[in-house]
Amino acid sequence: MSAASHELPDLSLSELSEQIRSRSVSSVEATTACLERIERLDPLLNSFITVTAEASLEQARHRDVERAAGAWRGPLHGVPIALKDLILTRGIPTTSGSDVLRDWLPTYSATAADRLEAAGAVMLGKLNMHEFAFGATSINPHYGPVRNPHDPTRITGGSSGGSAAAVAAGLCYGALGSDTGGSIRCPAALCGIVGLKPTYGRVSRHGVLPLAWSLDHVGPMTRTVRDAALMLQAMAGADPLDDMASSEPVPDYAAEVDAGVQGLRIGVPVEFFWHPVDPRVRERVLAGIELLARAGAEIREISLSTLDMARAAQTLTIYAEAAAAHRAMLRESSHRYGPTVRVRFACGLFVSGPDYLAAQQARRLVRRELARRFEEVDLIATPACPIPATRIDQKRVAVDGVEAPPQYFLVRNNGLFNLTGLPAVSVPCGMAGGLPAGLQLAGRPWEEGTVLRAARVVEQAVGPLKPQASENL
Fold this sequence. Notes:
This protein is an alpha/beta fold. Helices cover 40% and strands 15% of the residues. The strands form 2 sheets. The protein has an 11-stranded mixed β-sheet, with helices on both faces. It has a two-stranded antiparallel sheet with strand order 10-11.
């Protein structure tokens, strides 16, 4: 392989797209480069469960034939991507990271997967994850732990850990993740990439194995903000197969991504999100907020009085809905679940009807307060994850005088925006003690464009964290 081909996987999705469009690089060349990097690096990173090498190359050849004939499907034409392994793919194993579904071959694909294929993407395979998406470390008892490309002794976060690792290491140009309580934003923060949870209903969940139906979101994980905009563009919109998928008009996200933040009001909550937070993460996130201020945004302190209520409501909701979704499989195959996840699902069976209804009443109060705050500000900024990536073998973390298992910290700052369905992104804001830190930005419903504009300002100042090449692994 030539030096130029060897470096192909280090391009962003947008950069590769321009090269394929100009026909200076073929889809086969890009796909081959990714597959060779997967073969070289993934035995250590363990980000893939299934690699579809032969089918991927055939798909890439077809994209090149189309391009030679003058056909162009758009910015994803010929671009290699990968999917979290709870996104159904016709005839390709979809395990959801569990032994329970190890041999399952779906007969149809998820709407999001079909739309990416229609947009011209080439699918490289299915990505490792926390079992059934019910956890935040991606330490998987059946397929092994996913390892962080910045330090393979450390976790990626989860549950979309394989998606984050594969993108960060340049094994693919973009990936799909799912986010029920932070499962896109947490691993994006820990691996130094962009992770976007769109508004609830912006992307169809048809064909995505559920964890908690009212909290689940599907979104892109990429190296740059523009790349996330392009992937979201291809997937967003109404879907008759998902009655929660919205018909709200879909703007041109990439066209507005460089509009800046001049005049935007950004709220910084004074409670909850900043304690406990690792001091190194706090420093990088505050520096990211300062970058937004220098670019013309107005920074305001805000108060959110319902945050404790929100955390309790989100926890009850996820446990109850997860147990309901898995009731039949737990009855038939509980012995094939990993022990930790099996206990979590079992706990959900003990959430009572009155408890669940109380959580939904609290949810309405939280939504009402967030709506009021978004009359005062355009975005809310917080740390995406309170801590850097912990060691895979680490059982306890001490931060700001609080000592707890890593799971306690990892998605602590994310669940509010699942409960309320608001769009939120994690964008890299620098390195905290040699490991990535992420700034979380959340916005009003359907205003992913505003969220991405602000994330782009931070990215332009900090620079995307480069994929970790083999010499660092």
